[in-house]
Amino acid sequence: MEQNQRSFMKVFWGAGLALALVVAGLAVLFVLPTTTKEESGELTAVYEQYKQHYARGRYGEAEVHARKAIELSEAELGPEHKTTAILINNLATVHELQGRYAEAEGLYKRALTIKEKVLGPEHISVGATLNNLALLLDLQHRYGEAEPLYLRALRIMEKALGPKHPSFAISLDNLGVMYSAQGRYGEAEPLNVRALAILEEALGAG
Question: Which of 35, 60, 130, 148 is 20 to 30 Å apart from 48, CA to CA?
């Protein structure tokens, strides 16, 4: 699939940090869990190592630490805790960047199931994972499966964050790029234009 050049974008919301990074010209969202009293020092340290490797593009090392963080979270907090789900989502993102799509898909779906159960189907973290799963399917040209996930993610983000939040814009732009890939230019253009306007207003045009 032809790659569209995009700038690297960082988006903040609430208590967590949601990053949007470019994958084949599209944006993945992931949430960094905040430290709580429930988490051990070991879990926090392993997670910090994961973040450092991820930021440097060392995905093999990031995977090792992501898996260790998940193991610790499952043992300390439980396999269906929100932090465990966020860590699973982030491991899926690593696999997606490695081109390991089948593994990434299974992890995104696992994270989504936990988040929907623990946080509810309209939680913003659910929206982030929906966007990521949609993007993964999109990258594989599985457009019919991706579209309803993008649309659901957009509904959640607009309701939770408002129609001018950068995270909403990122998912909006992803949907527009997918429509362009299908030759649905009349549907794609207004989405991309709207997304760009939101991002320029929120983050600055420069």
Answer: 130
With 0-12 CB in 10 A as exposed, 13-18 as middle and 19+ as buried, what is 169? buried
CA 176, distance to chain mean position in Å, is 17
List of residues 6+ apart from 36 with CB closer than 8 A: 83
The pLDDT tens digits for 100-116 are: 999 999 999 999 999 99
Helix (H, G, I), strand (E, B) or coil at 70: helix
Sheet harboring 26-32: ordered strands across?
9-13, 16-23, 26-32
pLDDT tens, position by position, 173-195 = 999 999 999 999 999 999 999 99
The predicted model scores a pTM of 0.82
pLDDT higher than threshold 50 for residue 68: yes
Place of tokens 């930021």: 55
Rounded to the nearest 5°, which phi and psi values hold at 37?
-65, -15
